[in-house]
Design a protein that fits this description.
mainly beta, 4-stranded antiparallel β-sheet, 24 strands, globular, binds D-gluconic acid, binds zinc ion, zinc, cytoplasm
Length: 299
């Protein structure tokens, strides 16, 4: 039995930390703070954090095969050059929905960027329903809307055999699966693979491990849970010292560390005083399981 250790690696806290992505070549963790319009890169060797401020909310970031990054900023799919801090807009979605913004996004095993939208929130979880959609940016620059009627488009990942796409619309309190065609990127046959328990609250970001099990960050639940999408059973719960746990990814040497983002936004002053680590990035070691490298955008 391994012994689990949790530490916060970045002392600065995010109002809504999200989209952790491990970048092997720089030994760094990328992540964003959505409402502060910032993208961060934490170097695990030097412990230094670099940041880039963009012009509106930035909800996800991913590595680009040809160098640099891609990110979802406001309602735009963009490329990001870290050196000169420039953003280039590739495509704007939801032009008819002025209050919408992108939320979570991730690159699929074939290098397509999947990302979904949501209506702007007046408070966490409080928003006009069914305004979001799931979009896919293909490497050739075209964008397709896969479905709409989404409340809060959130966690996503793909099975190890690339035959299933896992997806979370937070306010459905469910982790869903679709059949997934790697060649075309098409998805079909939506079903639920896990329904959240009451004390797990809202499913947010998610990642897969190298045994094909899903790790889901539980917003308001202060934990990550490990799920078996085949049996629908929860296998493990790891509690964290911040109740608004937002997303997770594996990283570090051999992808044996689980990085978890969190948020302080939405906590009342009492709770904030009792959760001094809210909004930090946590590193969980000793899980005895590893993750896989993130896929890079191929366009
Ligand atoms: O972290 C995210 O994915 C959203 O941007 C947040 O707004 C929360 O998920 C939401 O508030 C939960 O209800
Ligand atoms: Zn999220």
């Amino acid at each position: 039995m391994s012994s689990i250790k949790i530490e916060s690696v970045v002392l600065d806290s995010s109002k809504c930390g999200e989209s952790p992505v491990w970048e092997e070549k720089s030994n760094s963790l990328l992540y964003v703070d959505i409402p502060s319009n910032k993208i961060f890169r934490w170097d695990s060797l030097t412990k230094q954090v670099q940041e880039i401020t963009v012009d509106s909310s930035v909800s996800s970031v991913a590595i680009r095969q040809s160098g640099g990054y891609v990110a979802t900023v406001g309602t735009r799919f963009c490329t990001l050059n870290w050196e000169d801090q420039s953003l280039t807009v590739l495509y704007t979605v939801d032009k008819d929905k002025k209050n919408n913004r992108f939320n979570d996004g991730k690159v699929d095993p074939a290098g397509r960027y999947f990302a979904g939208t949501m209506a702007g929130e007046t408070a966490p979880g409080v928003l006009e329903r069914h305004q979001g959609s799931l979009y896919v940016l293909f490497p050739n620059g075209t964008v397709e809307k896969y479905f709409d009627h989404v409340d809060i488009s959130n966690g996503l990942d793909w099975s190890l055999d690339h035959k299933i796409f896992y997806y979370i619309d937070s306010l459905s309190y469910s982790v869903d699966a679709f059949d997934y065609d790697l060649q075309t990127g098409k998805i079909a046959n939506r079903r639920s693979v896990y329904k959240m328990e009451k004390e797990e609250y809202i499913p947010d970001g998610m990642c897969i491990d190298n045994e094909g099990k899903l790790w889901v960050a539980c917003y308001n639940g202060g934990r990550v849970i490990r799920l078996d999408p085949e049996t629908g059973k929860r296998l493990q719960t790891v509690k964290l010292p911040a109740e608004k746990t937002t997303s997770c990814c594996f990283g570090g040497k051999d992808y044996s560390e689980l990085y978890v983002t969190s948020a302080w936004g939405g906590l009342d002053p009492d709770k904030l005083a009792r959760q001094p680590e809210a909004g930090r990035i946590f590193k969980i070691t000793g899980l005895g399981v590893k993750g896989i490298a993130p896929y890079a955008f191929a366009g």
